[in-house]
Amino acid sequence: MEYHKINQEDLKALSSYIADPARLITNPTTHWDHDQFKTVRAMPDLVIQPVTNEEV
Predict the structure, then answer these.
(1) Which domain of life is it from (predicted)?
(2) Which of 8, 12, 25, 41 has a 20 to 30 A CA-CA distance from 18?
(3) What is the pLDDT of residues 1-56, one digit of tens each?
(4) What residues contact residue 30 under an 8 Å CB cut-off, 6+ apart?
(5) Rounded to an integer, what distance in angstroms lies between the CA atom of residue 41 and that of residue 47?
């Protein structure tokens, strides 16, 4: 599987769905590098902070 790193074009496309740019976290910290149980760890390239259950 080939991995596609998120670029400015991708961010622009995602921004059309997420109006508040503060919700697009492009420099995530270790706060975001694990699942709920801390069994899976990987640093994401991008985090989109949801505001409703429906978004999740």
Answers:
(1) Bacteria
(2) 41
(3) 788 899 999 999 999 999 899 999 999 999 999 988 999 999 999 999 999 999 88
(4) 43
(5) 14
